[in-house]
Each structure stands twice: as structure tokens, then as C-alpha cells.
Amino acid sequence: MALASAALAVGWCSDTRAASEPGPEVATQQPGTDKPVDASLPIASDVRIAGDDKQTRFILDLDRKVSLRAFTLADPYRVVIDLPQVAFHLDPGAGTVTRGLIKAFRYGMVMPGGSRVVIDLAKPVKIRSATALDPANGQPARMVIELEAVDRTTFVQGLAVENRPELRPAIAGSASPSPVVATVVSNAAAAVETDNRPVVVLDPGHGGMDNGTQADGESEKSIVLAFGLALRDRLEKLGKFRVVMTRSDDTFIALDERVKLARGHSAALFVSIHADALPRGEGDAQGATVYTLSDKASDAEAQRLADLENKADAIAGVNLTEEPTEVADILIDLAQRETRTFSGRFARLVAKEMKVTTRMHKRTCHPC
After folding, report:
1. Which of 10, 31, 205, 359 could bond to 274 as cystine, CB 3.0-4.6 Å?
2. 4-21+175-366 with 43-163: one CATH topology?
3. 55-88 pLDDT per residue, tens
4. Interatomic CA distance for residues 253 and 267, integer angstroms
5. Contact 294, 368 (CB under 8 A)
6. φ and ψ at residue 185, rounded to 5 degrees
7. 42: which residues sit within 8 A by CB, 6+ positions away?
8. Which residues have CB under 8 Å from 137's CB, separation 6+?
9. CATH number, domain 4-21+175-366, options 3.40.50.2300, 1.10.3720.10, 3.30.300.30, 3.40.630.40
10. Helix %, strand %, coil % of the chain (to 5)
């Protein structure tokens, strides 16, 4: 059976403050994970930024020394710092501080065993030093990043392929994402031999350091995860489907890894769950919309949402999308034509059933 793809966008009310649409250029407050903090994790307790628009120092206080890896990315200019998994106990507004070369920063768990700090820059820089310091003279362990302003040519020269490590935990001996996916796929293949039920993959959007939309103290990543888990439980009770979650906790999963997981399970259906909010002054909104794959956006609003989601991987610092070859483009196009047919059929069915129990937006189905 072909893999159908339907994105379910769930709206909620926001009438007390403007909702943000964080992308790779926007600073967002990162509360860490929603799970109980593991006492064995290093704890980041404070952060300081010092300097001017020529040289700036970023200092993170920790309760123990940790390994780190720092590199730069362009368009927009960013410094990415990979760490072992860290419990961030920072002031909620710490990431919005602007000083010197630093416009803002965000942080959080980017995968099991790994955390990441992404620093948004005011201009191109080079990393003069990235140091992990032991506790000394009554001072805590520290991570110190020294940044120096440079011209774009110098900056680009520092973007050699060898300076762009793959997304993986910064802890020696920790498993990389690939073996994790391989294990899941292997287990799925074994399960298929004894279970012929269709596989439904539920994909709660965002996660980890990518909060998604925020409004009234709520984050999109938490709302869609709760919705996804509730939907999983309902589907499992029916007994007709095998349900797989792309994430079942507050973890960042790259977009391509979500798709690989679905393919690895030979999924019959892939449902991505997202939520949106209206800025204050634009009224209240409730309802749902079903989105499906399209060659182009059906309207300006659909294009806005697509742009946000397609850029989601950049919020974690690295865009993992591989450039396809010309042959791959043709194969992808053929697969997408079949997928669009199945997706449109499923989307119309979902929209029809949802109308019975919930309020739907005026344009119920995009692009069907």
C-alpha cells in the first residue's frame, strides 16, 4: 500500500497575547524538556554574555565539566554548540538577551543523549576558542565560547564540510541517531511477519528545542504531543491498526528521520499533527484543517505554514536535507503523484467525519 500523508492542523484560542511563529531567525524561550530531570545529567545553572560588536564571550555555568563541539553556520549566521544531554535550569528569558555579536540564543535536548545551544549572530564571526573548564577557585565548571567579528569571506572559509559534524550526541560512546532508527526498523520488520494490520504513523510536530508556536504560556510541541498520545490510545483500542509514534516525549526529531521511520515500518498512513494560534487583535479561532501534499500552496496561509514547517530543522542548527539528484527528482515526482491521490482521498474522509464532532475552518481541506 502506498504511503499516504495528511497533516492535521489543530487550532486553539489565543486572545491575551500575540502568538509567535518561531523559525530559525527568531529567539525563543526554551524551558528544556517536559520530563522529570534525570539527577545524573549535568546541570546548566547560569549564562552570561560579555563584550562588544568586535569580540563577544558566551559563558555557561555547569555543575561539572562536559565535552563540547562548536561550529558556525550561514544564512542566517549562527554558532552551534553540541553538548552531552544537559538539564537547563536557566532563567526563562535568558535566551532573549542581546549583546555584542549575539542577537539571541536557544537551547534544549536535540536527541536522546545530546543537547544543543544555537546562538543567533548579528554578523559573521569566527570562533576564537571553545573551551570546557573544570571547577576552580570556588567557581563552577564552565563552557566558554569566544567569538570575533570577521568579514563574510573569512566566515565562509570556515564552513568547510569537515567543520560541519553530523547531528549526534556529544558523549563519547553514545549511540548515534542512525543505529536508533535502524533498530526501530529492524524491530518493525520482525513485527510485520506476525502482524498484518495496517501501520499508522502519528507525527506530533516540533519537540525538544523546537517549541513551535507559543501562546498564553503554552507551546505547540506539548499540545500536539498530548493530542498524538490520546489519538494513539484511541486507535490502539480499536485493535485494527498498529500505531507508531515518531516521538512520544519532548525530543527533537529531524524531518527526514520522521519520514525514514515511517518508510521503515512500511506505514500505510502518516499523519503529522500541528497547531497554530492567532496574534492578539485578530480575533479568536477554533477548529481544524486537513493539509495534504501539493505541488504548490493552495493559498497564502497554507504557504506560510509550509514555509515554517520546512524550515523547522534549521532551528536545531543543521539542515539535514540532502540535495536530490535529477534521477531522484523523477522518482520522487512519480511517488508523490500516487501519494497525492491516496492522501486526498483520506483527507476528504477525515474532514467529513470531523465535521460531525468538531468545528472546522472555512477551508476545511488543503488542497483537496
Report:
1. 205
2. no
3. 999 999 999 999 999 999 888 899 999 999 999 9
4. 18
5. no
6. -65, -40
7. 62, 63, 64, 66, 83, 84, 85, 86, 87
8. none
9. 3.40.630.40
10. 30, 30, 40
* 57-90 burial: b if 16+ Cβ within 10 Å, else e: bbebbbbeebebebbbbeeebbbbbbbbbbbbeb
Fold of 43-163: Immunoglobulin-like (2.60.40)
pLDDT digits (tens, 9 = 90+) for 205-264: 988 888 888 877 788 999 999 999 999 999 999 999 999 999 998 888 887 788 888 888
Residue with cell 498520545: 229
- Domain borders along the chain are 4-21+175-366, 43-163
The upper half-sphere exposure of residue 158, i.e. CA atoms within 13 Å in the direction of its Cβ, equals 21
Does the pTM exceed 0.85?
Answer: no
Query: Amino acid identity of 281?
Result: G
**Phi and psi (nearest 5°) for 130?**
-135, 105
Q: How far apart are CA 221 and CA 71, in angstroms?
A: 27
How many C-beta atoms lie closer than 10 Å to residue 10's C-beta? Answer: 17
Relative to beta strand 87-88, strand 43-51 is parallel
Integer Cα distance of 141 and 302 in angstroms: 47
Please state whether the peptide bond connecting residue 177 to the residue before it is cis, i.e. omega within 30 degrees of 0.
no
What are the cell numbers at 240? 485494527
Cis peptide preceding 84, ω within 30 of 0: no
Residue 56 DSSP code: E
**In the block, residue with C-alpha cell 545530546:** 114
The Cα angle at residue 175 between residues 170 and 180, in degrees rounded to 5: 130
* DSSP code of residue 296: S
Cβ pair 161, 77 in contact under 8 A: no
| 113: enclosing H helix or E strand | none
Dig out the grid coordinates for 212 from the structure: 513551535
> Max Cα separation, the chain?
67
